[in-house]
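Fig. S4 source data, part A: sequence.
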Amino acid sequence: MFFIFVNLISCQKEIKAKPIDKKAIVDSTITVFEKKLLKNQIDSVFKKYSFNGSVAIFKDSIELYRKNQGYSDFKNKLEIDNNTIFAIGSVSKQFTAVLTLLLSEQGKLNVDDKVSEYLSEFQNKEYKDITIHQLLNHTSGLNTLGGKLQFRSGSDFFYSNDGFNTLGKIIEKISGKSYHRNVLELFKKAGMAHSFIGTQFEGNNFAGAYLGNEKVFEKIQNMPKRLGSKDIGIPAGGILSTIDDLHLWNNALYSGKILNTETLKKFTAKSAERHHPVFGKMGYGYGIMTNTEKPDTYFHSGYIKGSPSLNIYYPHTKTSVIILSNIADEGKGKNMIFKPHVEIKKITDAIENTVVQMEGEKTTKTTVKM
């Protein structure tokens, strides 16, 4: 009996109460708050606009919100799911920018180099002073390749697909590999197994692009092959991807797994100003836009006929917001097409500001106690 009693006392001595992790409790509370708020508010956006597409929000590796609604194939009523592959339009530009910057890290080019050093079509009076930097942030003055410049290079902003398609040519010339091979290697580096370029895609699960609405619609023909056409171009807008692959991309890119710290700063730094037709006044880096006010945000929209998209990353909380769709009513104009995207961004901007404030107050209280 005495032996049992001694053993019990011994066991009790070994049982120690674990210290309460107050930070984990607060973080968990904030996450629950975010999830509830996002569900209520974004679900209402889906309902309000009968949104056809996918929306997902991740805080680092934690899924805060995800919803798929509508069809990837309207005629055959095939529903959108987590594996649906969308055309992402100009969200593609950040991949081209990163490929360019990777070459600069290897010492194979400098962003301040003149394009004429690499491409003969720029060796004329009109184009001779255009730099790679100016192509990356749309300050070259270039509109259509071969046409007259909109302004003196470096003096203003003019959004140019041909500028990014030119970067694609530079990437091919310097690397000695096709743009396709370069970008596939980049996808692999980021762990993106379900991303492709439009001209090489032969798989399933692609969301066909449509004009109109769920009742009256017209399918865009020759998708996604048409993304390689002269008026679009793969480096400017020809990548196909999924919600989960873009989430992987954001995490890999902004955590420094793709570019080194200094190069990533160049990529995100505001080096130009854009007056976006839908999102208003924005800072512009290299194939990426930034908010002019809080919260700190890196994002880019994309539009290929019938496929409006938006990819957002909030660096402070490591949060990705990805919105992909495959139908657009062009008769109502771009502002209406992107209305759901704009509303969701306003919601997530507001929540990000609140969370940053809550985390700031948490840090202040912890510091005061110490």
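Fig. S4 source data, part B ends here. Residues 1-17, 366-370 have pLDDT under 50 and may be disordered.
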